[in-house]
Amino acid sequence: MNPHGFPSRMTIGKMIELLGGKAGVSCGEFHFGSAFGEPSGHAHKVEAISETLVKHGFSYGGKDFIYSGITGCPLQAYIFMGPIYYQKLKHMVVDKMHARGNGPRTLMTRQPTEGRARNGGLRVGEMERDCLIAYGASNLIYERLMLSSDPFEVKVCRVCGLLGYFDYKLKTGICSTCKNGDNISSLKLPYACKLLFQELHSMNIVPRLRLTES
């Protein structure tokens, strides 16, 4: 284990277990590996474990002088090592690997579903987006966050800046506020953005889009 992980994770019991394990296999006894001792009071203290190690020819602190298996030369430092009990982690790659091209989408936001069980997409979150911004990969951001997610075409009135709708009878866009379709432009934006505008409208907050010629 990386020694830098011990202060934050506070897994001091593992270090005691290493010492106790080495002393236990040396003398054929069980040792308690708890950092806090046992309620019965029978827990072995680190000093007692270290004395057992010295009695059987090991270092007091549990460090060993070992040779490199590659060069055959002794290593320049003493290595803190010993036997320890561990179990196999059940997380397997075959249970986690997942990819998708097209697939199901959620009804409300029209974005890809989440999770391997639902054949969901891989989320590009805020931190991933920040990395792409730092690299200046604007086309990739546009593709991941819009084209591959929830692209949607809306009709926007250039006069009032509000969202309109497409009239299939007249075959043109109509602004429901201005009551005409003379100043309607088509705009592509994420469906979740359109949904946000509509939810703000329901709270009597009116966001307006100011369009400029590109």
From TrEMBL:
Q: What is its EC number?
A: 2.7.7.6
Major enzyme class: transferase
| Domain DNA-directed RNA polymerase subunit 2 hybrid-binding: from-to ranges | 1-118
The record ties this protein, via Pfam families, to: RNA_pol_Rpb2_6, RNA_pol_Rpb2_7
Query: Per its record, how is this protein called by name?
Result: DNA-directed RNA polymerase
Which UniProt keywords are given for this protein, alphabetically ordered? DNA-directed RNA polymerase, Metal-binding, Nucleotidyltransferase, Transcription, Transferase, Zinc
Give the GO terms filed under biological process for this record.
Answer: DNA-templated transcription
Could you tell me which PANTHER family the record lists for this protein?
DNA-DIRECTED RNA POLYMERASE I SUBUNIT 2 (PTHR20856)
- The domain of life is Eukaryota
Task: Recall the GO molecular function terms of this protein's record.
Answer: DNA binding; DNA-directed RNA polymerase activity; metal ion binding; ribonucleoside binding
A single cellular component GO annotation: DNA-directed RNA polymerase complex
What residues does the RNA polymerase Rpb2 domain cover?
Answer: 120-210
Q: Which family does it belong to?
A: Belongs to the RNA polymerase beta chain family.
Which Gene3D superfamilies did the record assign? DNA-directed RNA polymerase, subunit 2, domain 6 (2.40.270.10), RNA polymerase alpha subunit dimerisation domain (3.90.1800.10)
